[in-house]
Write a structure and sequence with these properties.
Blueprint lengths: L7 H10 L6 H22 L31
């Protein structure tokens, strides 16, 4: 596994976006957890998918109806 080091400015920015005020202890815990999460995602980078076509469950190309002017109601 590749060792990931999260810099302080990244932790500060994430806490700003999340509107969190973290203590130094919380920042260090967040760093450890965030690095662990990134390590787990690094496994995905190791998957060799080659040049496979994308798989679509439904092959609808254009599901929109054609615009048309509705017929007016007859006044009685």
């Amino acid at each position: 596994m590749v060792e990931t080091i999260i810099e302080d400015n990244v932790i500060e920015r994430v806490s700003e976006i999340a509107r969190l005020k973290l203590s130094e202890v919380e920042k260090e815990k967040f760093r450890e957890e965030f690095e662990r999460i990134l390590e787990e995602f690094s496994v995905v980078d190791e998957i060799n998918v080659g040049e496979k076509e994308l798989y679509y469950v439904v092959e609808n190309v254009n599901v929109l109806r054609k615009d048309s002017k509705p017929k007016p109601f007859n006044k009685i």
